[in-house]
Every structure is written in C-alpha cells, then in structure tokens.
Amino acid sequence: MKIVSGGQTGADRGALDAAIELGIEHGGFCPRGRLAEDGTIPERYRLTETATEEYSERTEKNVLAAQATVVFSHGEPTGGSLHTVAFARARSRVVLVVDLDATSETEAARLLRETVRSNSVSVLNIAGSRESKSPGIFAAVRRVVLLAFTAGV
Hints:
The chain is an alpha/beta fold. It has a single domain, classed as Rossmann fold (3-Layer(aba) Sandwich), CATH 3.40.50. The chain contains five helices and nine strands, in the order βαβββββαβαβαβα. The protein is globular.
C-alpha cells in the first residue's frame, strides 16, 4: 500500500503525516518549487515536483498515479477539491468523497478502509481542503487515516 498526495496544508499533509507515522510508503506530486500556501513543502515528504507551479498539474498526476482517490472536506468539495473529484471520475478512478461535517471520523475511517479493500487499491490518492479554507482538517484527516490503517489493510 502507498499513499500519495500533493503536499498542500490541510488534508494532504494530514494523510502524509499519518502514512509516515504508520510506516506506509508515501509519495506523490507537488508543484515545481514545492509550492504550498504556507511556503515551501518540507523535504520530509517524499514528493516529486511537477514541471510547472500549477496546482492542477499536481492534482491530475496524483489521480493518475492511484487506483482510487479520497477527497476530504467540511461540506461539499469546492475549488481544487471539486476539480480532483471531477478529474478522477472522468478518468474512471474510484472516488470517495468524505464530508467531515456529515460523517464521524470513525465512519470515515471505516469507509476509507472498505474502499481500499473492496477495490484492491495498492496506491491511494488522498486530497481535500487546505487548512486555511477548512481549519482543523489536517488533524481530522490524520486521525481518520490512522484509524483506518492502524490494524493494517
């Protein structure tokens, strides 16, 4: 199992930090210059820079690198998260959207685990809202991923 993500603040880093804590292989693509809303994405995240600084390029590469994409948000996905969902669906990838306002962390972890198991996912893309647009999402996604995969997949 490998978790890929784009390294943005919020959901992306929550997923990557959980993967690191669990010893799950991680990676993914990030914009050239390791661009994120808080400056430069730390080197501890094993990400590959894309050719451009465009967030959409990194989003599309991460979707294509995985068999399934999970998007976390508070409320309906908007902006880049909505683009991620649309792109994944257009490429016939498995997509799970988790609205953390409507789904408990325990249920989100169960849905995540079930999506991975039932679709034999070996590479999972985890995306979602950035921290500035959804305060607290980093911690919530980290907890969900830890819950989902602590017992293994």
